[in-house]
Amino acid sequence: MASLSLILIFILIIFSVSPPQTSLADDSSVMAKLASSLSPLPSDWKGTEYCTWTGIKCDATNLVISIDLSSSSISGSLPPDLNRLSQLQTLFFQKNRLSGPIPSLANLTSLREIHLDDNDFSSFPPDFFSGLCGLHIMGISNNMNLAPWSIPADLAHCGNLATFTASNASIIGLLPDIFSSFPSLQNLHLSYNNITGPLPPTFAGSYIVYLWLNNQIKGLSGNIDVLSSMTQLSQIWLQANQFTGPLPDLVNCTDIFDLQLRDNQLTGVIPKSVMNLPKLVNISLQNNKIQGPMPVFGSKVKVELGQTNSFCKDTPGPCDDQVTALLSVAGAIEYPMQLAQSWQGNDACSNWLSVNCDTEGHVTIVNFGKDRFSGTISPAFANLTFLRSLILNDNNLTGSIPMSLTTLPHLQILDVSNNNLSGPLPVFHSSVQVNSKGNAFLGMKINPDGTVSTSWNESAGIIAALVIAVVLFVAVVLYISYRSYVKKRKQEKFFGHFDPEKGRKMAKNVNNEGPNELQRGQSSRDHIEEVFSIETLRQVTNDFSNKNELGKGGFGIVYKGELQDGTKIAVKRMESSMMSSKGMNEFHAEIGVLKKVRHRHLVALLGYCMNGNERLLVFEYMPQGNLAQRLFDCRQHGYSPLTWKQRISIALDVARGVEYLHSLAQQSFIHRDLKPANILLGDDLRAKVADFGLVKNAHDGNYSMDTRLAGTFGYLAPEYANTGRVSTKIDVYAFGVILMEIITGRKSLDEKMPNEQANLVSWFRRILINKEEIRKVIDESLDINCQGSYESICKVAELSGYCTAREPLQRPDMGHIVNVLSPFVDLWKPCEEKEEDEKEGVDSIDLDMSLSQIVQKWKASEGTSSDMFSIDDSRSQSKDWR
Fold first, then answer.
1. What is the largest CA-CA distance in the chain?
2. What is the pTM of this model?
3. What is the spatial distance between Cα 134 and Cα 88, in angstroms, rounded to a whole number?
4. CA distance 285 to 630
């Protein structure tokens, strides 16, 4: 018996120290394929002892950990199953003549360095970075024959990335806003590609030291303000792009030694902080339109200014007083290029655009009327002491009218009409003609929390109204409190009192015998959110297995799970890189909102978990994916294309869910990130709105101001993107974009399309001018010959135009949208069925009617008041959608 025990122990020892034969077989097979696909091979690449080959390193179990064939003059291609080398840590193939597609290296968790620079590869796989959690260095520069590719969002999972070099590598599209995911990233080299759009906001606070984004084919655009928050920067190469606006204040970027900004469209005055950078040795600013005094740099700094900038003088020194005042004025409106091209020299009266002077050289008129400027009104206008007329009408100016303008002794005309000004209207002399109409919030003040309210007035009528309002408010609060108390007592009577500690115990009981809240059925989940234990969530998701992964987003990864009672759930797990104040705010915001709202078209929160650094949310499971997958990638996900009936039903579901958020819940909310990826579908293809991390309280009757944009490019309303103004109408705008996507099957932003078609909203609104053009842009997978389909598509297309109107007040409310869409869903019939009895009244519509006639019919049947959503039919037929 003892001998048998010894034999068993010996066998166990052998198996414990021997590697799995399948892994060795995999490595042997892959290395054989690699050897057969390359030439000329090193002389010792023969036989099966690959661990002895030149450039190959293996671990103690003969698994390959490193391949180094750099600068070996080899050609050929790499085998597609290179990612079967499960223990691979470093890969060096740079400076060769390799061609063919780059194989995916997904899920090689040990891989730390990849060097593929200076080859002739033909394509880059979209899942290349998936699962490369240990990646530290990635190099793919100088692969000029690569097919165009975009930096995938999966790169965000490479949290240890320190160097990413991909210059001259055929990259297109926007830079993904994922750079808060890389606490170690120091080298970002992406020069000589075709990257477009703005610098991503997550550059702010990053640890990038060497930033190379120069010489993009079409050019990056927007301002470069984010540089001021990149305090680790040493080298900045942004030359040969399309950047606009002024140079930022770099007072906190004290390590910069090389600043290349030439060949852009930069304007404005050079800040003193740029001239005083302590380590600066090289700066290029030529071929811009920079203004103000000639800059003065240290004697050891190599400076290139060129001849195209608009400095007031050719030598250092201050500008003329009137020039200085006008440059301050231009700064408040973001130094527009049209002024920088005209405002040259040191004499404001030498044919400067929008500036008139008297015979003595005093500026008397500044006329910015209808110039579409954004920004604020500068107090520096008060330094133009001879100013008689200040014309600022029909722009997009925000903020208040400076009180200093009342000190202008010669002012006769002030026209600020049709802007977005707020705050008090200063009291001017009776001789000054003031035109301030068309400023809805003028006479109001912006509160510290960003809301807008009417300013205080000493009149007795206003005070009386305020007293009445306060009394009514107190009465409403007392009534709501009473109702909440009664409701709570009823819930406690039915469910029992719920506290976090008890919730934790119930969650732990999922693994034990005996019933608990999760095992009693769905009814309890409709009312009470569980506090799950991390052990429970690990168990039901198979320890967060990749096989259970449903999707990835900016928050983290969503996993599928199944509770003991058979209920399927979706577990949203925050990544460690999101454990910032912003990420935590989104986590608590989503819990806070979903505890307050319950609707059949909003994804339900079943519970959450907070355990150490773990933050997880548990939702009901939506088995049919999201609308983005169904619209844009249905074939890849194995789905059949959505029919028009299904699409319009989904749109109505979303509209009902958002209507509830806006006006039917106990509090009013703004979603702020409405898009197809956040619209989830059930087995019956009924839709529910998800992802409430960016939801914001809506202030009744007012808008609020955001200091930091949130949401997704392509769905941001103009007033939000330009000024930060937030109201429920920004969700309406995003919904209008979704309607356009539903009709066309196209994404809101598509860099693969020609420039004039890349932005779906602007392109589709031009199509709407001619109804017959709509037929040409409808998604090819839709059967427009189905009875009534084309006519209803045209009506929905028209509705999308109203939803995406530039001015918020011209957009309908979500309640009105629901009423417009409802008849289309109720009356749709399959092509093979014949309508026998057409309903009368609101349940039937004539598809030959215009959208406004449909709404009028609905109003007549429902007794809707005249101030409800209305559309002038004559305008709807001739409106210039541009």
1. 119
2. 0.53
3. 11
4. 48
The structural domains of the chain, with segments of one domain joined by +, span 21-311, 336-454, 500-620, 627-698+711-833+840-878
- 3-class SS at 451? strand
CA-to-CA distance for 650 and 631, rounded, in angstroms? Answer: 12
- Backbone angles phi and psi of 671, in degrees to 5: -70, -50
Fold equal for 21-311 and 627-698+711-833+840-878: no
Q: Which of 673, 691, 731, 779 is catalytic?
A: 673
pLDDT-derived band at 838 (thresholds 50, 70, 90) equals very low
Check residue 849 and give its pLDDT: 61
CA distance linking residue 296 with residue 319, whole number of Å: 14
Token pair, residue 92, equals 């060096």
> What kind of architecture, by CATH, is found in domain 21-311?
Alpha-Beta Horseshoe (3.80)
- Residues near 30 by Cβ (< 8 Å), separated by ≥ 6? 64, 79, 81, 82, 84, 85
Does CATH place domain 336-454 in 3.80.10.10? yes
**For the segment 16-29, what is each residue's pLDDT rounded down to a tens digit?**
444 444 456 678 99
Element (H, E) at 266: strand 265-266
- Domain 500-620: what homologous superfamily? Phosphorylase Kinase; domain 1 (3.30.200.20)
- Respond yes or no on whether the N-terminal peptide bond of residue 125 is cis (omega within 30° of 0): no
For the beta carbon of residue 843, count every other beta carbon within 10 angstroms.
12
Instruction: Confirm whether 358 is a catalytic residue.
Output: no
What is the third-level CATH fold of 627-698+711-833+840-878? Answer: Transferase(Phosphotransferase); domain 1 (1.10.510)
pLDDT, tens digit, 9 for 90 and up, residues 63-90 = 999 999 999 999 999 999 999 999 999 9
Handedness of CA 417, 419, 422, 428 (dihedral sign): negative
φ, ψ at 212 (rounded to 5°):
-120, 110
pLDDT at 144: 92
Contacts for 615 with CB less than 8 Å, ≥ 6 apart: 573, 574, 579, 583, 584, 587, 608, 609
